[in-house]
Amino acid sequence: MKTALAIISVILFQSQGVSQSPKPFVLRGSMQGKDTGIVYFFLYHTPGLDSCFLKKGHFIFKGEIAEPILAYITTIPPGSQATRSDISGDFYIEPGEMNLLLNRDYTDIQLTGSATDLDRQHLMQLQLPIRRVIQRWGDSLDIVRDLQKEAKKDDSDSTIWIHLKSKGDSIYFGRIDPLYKQLDKIDSAFIIEHPNSFVAADMLSKTKKTEINFPSLAWLYNRMPETLKGSVPGKQILKKIQEEETVPIGGYAHNFIATDSKGREINLTDFKGKKYVLIDFWASWCGPCREMTPTLRTAYQQYKTELEIISISDESKEGEWKRAIAQDGMSWPQILENDQVVVKNPSGKSISETYGVLSIPTFILLDKELRIIKKFGGGFSAESNEQLKSELNSVLGTTTKKPPFR
Predict the structure, then answer these.
(1) Helix axes of 287-303 and 382-400: crossing angle, nearest 10 degrees
(2) Are strands 362-366 and 372-377 parallel, antiparallel or unpaired?
(3) CATH code, residues 5-113
(4) How far out from the chain centre does Cα 183 lie?
């Protein structure tokens, strides 16, 4: 029944190139309200799992790890249908002895002995008031969606179904989505304020886009202690920085070919020798991106003969993307890329990945030879908005002899 967790650990360290030597850990657990059964122990980013019998409500797991790692517990066998209430929340284990206390529905989890997990617990406390409100609105949304499904069985075009869909959309986009944006800000602030935290580094290594004005990734990385830089998340962050540096100022832009929202093929090289190009990386759900749109719209009207703007959005909801384009009056080429909408070029990766875009909004300004003049953005602020205006006025105002826009 019990698998060798030490074997799993060795595989993890070899595959991710961790330089620290594995050290033993012991996780003793107690599950209130359940005396017998099998407990399954999962470590993230590992190819296996560990399991043991639950005896009088107690279990124990032992193994070796080189650094902290996210884990979770469940009593549901692998491959079986499970709901979120069947799985414990994530927690960070680390070398040493730890104790885990949880109830059978995982609504109360207490881990002691892991200094790393204290940071996670602190972050959860910061998020808790907002998550409670999200839960209440989520319960309301579930009721509306269930009613909507029932109405659709009768008549998908019924006024009742349309009303319920509108009600559900209002709850999500008007109530829940803004709350998730508040959580994004809490996460981002936590990362900035805790440069020595493994939890912050782990979050940063997985962060692609953020809702606030994020400092540069290199700035955050340079504040980390050497031990954290040598960790798995530290190495992943460094890799992101190196990918971002593949688009140097003065270098030629990577070409891309994609179909825009109007069905036209957009090939970046078609603009060579004709216009300056501003590549705008954004998303419909990104508040800071949409706050920059009036500036883009004014610049496009002012310098249209000399400037082309190409907006690129990496998001899953095509309907929301198109709605935002219409609402914000974005008349320039719009490109969508996601798992279902694949661009023609580059192959095997997105345009955002090719340009090393780590946060949005991000802007890349190209000259008429498609050389990179400037790359900036990474969140909305009065300063970033003024920077965009200043850069466009400086480059295009000289060329067109037109007065700067405000």
Answers:
(1) 10
(2) antiparallel
(3) 2.60.40
(4) 12
